Amino acid sequence: ERSHNQEFADEHVLSQWGQAPKYKMAEKEISKSIKKIKKKCEKRMTKLIRKQQEEIQEFYRTWEEKMVQLEKEHRFESALVCKIHSLMPMRIDKLKILDNDFSKKLEEHEHQKDICLKDLEAKQLAEKNEERQKAACWLAGLKSMVQGEFSGGLPSHGSEYKDKVGCSQASENTSHNGPQNV
């Protein structure tokens, strides 16, 4: 009986010794996977930020073009009034009306620009938050898979896996295979 117990103890020690490198290897793989996911997420975020900066630049360029067009129209209308109305009092009255209209157009232009800029900034913030949420979701998915492996089974990629990870349906639709370049 003693030799049987000794054999059992030896087998147990060997199995423990055999598992230690396996866990070290798994730990390295997990760390590598986490770094890979983080790197891809950082790359996606950098690309998103660059795209958003281009959107902002395009926004300002477009609004500047509209401003130039308004000023050009005002100068044209002013020149036309000066050409048509030779009597000074009439010309001055018409030019004042044009100037008032131009001021109102500028105010409206600025007001619309502010509204559109706020909308653009809100949209961009939502995009950044969604990207952060995807990154957290992928990391949570990896963590869930790791916990499943160490508890004895692998999580399936079916609905129970998605429920464990807690990813939103929108994130699943856009990225159910993990992080990819945008």
TrEMBL record:
Residues 168-182 have a biased composition (Polar residues). GO terms for biological process: heterochromatin formation. Residues 151-182 are annotated as: Disordered. InterPro entries: MOM1. It comes from the Eukaryota. Keywords: ATP-binding, Helicase, Hydrolase, Nucleotide-binding. The keyword tRNA processing does not apply. It is an enzyme of class 3 (hydrolase). The keyword Transferase does not apply. Its EC number is 3.6.4.12. GO terms for molecular function: DNA helicase activity; hydrolase activity. This is Putative helicase protein MOM1.
